[in-house]
Write a structure and sequence with these properties.
- By secondary structure, the protein is of the alpha/beta class.
- Helices cover 44% and strands 17% of the residues.
- Strands 3-4-2-5-1-8-9-10 form an eight-stranded mixed beta sheet, sandwiched between helices. The chain has a two-stranded antiparallel sheet with strand order 6-7.
- Helix 1 packs across helix 9 and helix 2 packs antiparallel against helix 3.
- The longest helix is centred in the C-terminal third of the chain and has 25 residues.
Length: 291
């Protein structure tokens, strides 16, 4: 099952999208709210049901004790998002000032995400929030870069507006370089389009030179519920947002599976004999007849 990290250039619906994908998933799923600027699900969707005694910040102390302590702390700080516990949340920071303490925790947390995906068979979504750059690279404190490095897919969340595309454009090259140098490859980067604005998926992909891997509709009523909590809309379970999120989750899984196969079985270089055959065939085509 894939590990998928969601990021943005500015507020573009990362948290709402990650939450929708998690709730729509048909398999056990974990959402890790790892935005260094602070989490919003605790106060929003969960309506402050979760105290500050739960969440991401407490993993930093456990990591300093050792791997077993971190693994136990991670498990004990997950909060159920549904009645049967198939969908769980690691709540985010309550104060952005806590972010520097996680600098040495991100790599270990990234390994836990991989174990959940590879060995426990879970879908894992990471809300990595708004990305920050420093000298053309991901900022070492204001971005959870190691989580992006280990992800199967990194989704840059954009809206179909000129403003959103302009802001996202400056992140594309740094992200591609980062994933090529430290991640699972530059093709891990894709777009998640929020269908708000005049630009369609093919136009967005052409503008940013990155494929649109999935799209979600702009569903203000359902998005408001995921952002603020309270009583779900009467048609929430049949809402466009949740229906498209189910489709998007399946699409992302297919892309991740295809990448995994390609990495396991890369194209083999042509043998000298085959290369000679191809060369002769090319000469015949260029000569318009027998060579």
């Amino acid at each position: 099952m894939p590990v998928t990290a969601l990021v943005s250039a500015k507020s573009a619906g990362v948290t709402t999208s990650a939450l929708a994908l998690t709730l729509a998933s048909g398999r056990p799923t974990t959402l890790a709210e790892c935005d260094p600027a602070g989490g919003t699900i605790r106060a929003g969707f969960l309506q402050n049901q979760v105290s500050a005694g739960y969440g991401l910040y407490h993993l930093a102390k456990a990591e300093r004790v050792g791997p077993d302590a971190l693994a136990n702390a991670f498990a004990s700080h997950l909060w159920p998002l549904d009645g049967d516990g198939h969908r769980q949340l690691l709540p985010g920071l309550t104060d952005p000032a806590q972010a520097p303490a996680l600098g040495r925790t991100w790599p270990s947390l990234a390994q836990i995400m991989r174990v959940l995906s590879d060995q426990a068979g879970q879908d894992v979504f990471i809300d990595a929030g708004r990305l920050a750059l420093e000298n053309g690279r991901l900022h070492p404190t204001l971005t959870p870069a190691p989580l992006l490095h280990q992800a199967d897919l990194v989704l840059l969340v954009v809206r179909g507006t000129e403003q959103s595309l302009t802001l996202a454009r400056y992140l594309v090259e740094p992200l591609i370089s980062e994933l090529a140098e430290h991640g699972t490859g530059p093709d891990a980067l894709g777009l998640l389009l929020i269908e708000s604005g005049p630009f369609r998926a093919h136009q967005v992909a052409e503008s940013l030179k990155v494929p649109v891997l999935a799209a979600l509709p702009f569903d203000a009523e359902s998005a408001g519920y995921l952002t603020q909590g309270g009583q779900p809309p009467r048609t929430y379970k049949r809402s466009p947002l949740l229906q498209h999120a189910r489709t998007a989750a399946a699409q992302l899984e297919a892309v991740a599976a295809r990448r995994q196969i390609q990495q396991q079985y890369p194209p083999q270089p042509a043998t000298a004999q085959l290369a000679g055959v191809l060369e002769r065939l090319n000469r015949r085509r260029q000569g318009g007849g027998r060579g």
